[in-house]
Design the sequence.
């Protein structure tokens, strides 16, 4: 039981590390400024929703988790 919990914690840690690295270095590779990301500016207000970036990160994380389950 504890081994399964340990494996789960290691997997979560790896995924969080990968997501953190993607967020930290993502600007250099265009993540966060892709076509399909929604930006609304009016005066001193800016609303930003990274729709396409979120979809790509979701697909990548799904593939990584799928590989870990095999």
Sequence:
């Amino acid at each position: 039981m504890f081994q399964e919990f340990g494996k789960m914690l290691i997997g979560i840690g790896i995924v969080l590390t990968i997501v953190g690295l993607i967020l930290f270095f993502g600007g250099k590779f265009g993540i966060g400024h892709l076509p399909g990301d929604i930006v609304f500016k009016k005066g001193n207000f800016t609303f930003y929703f990274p729709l396409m970036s979120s979809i790509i990160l979701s697909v990548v994380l799904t593939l990584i988790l799928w590989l870990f389950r095999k």
About this structure: The CA atoms of residues 1 and 13 lie 19 Å apart. The mean pLDDT is 81. Strands lie at 38-42, 45-49. Residues 2-69 form one domain.
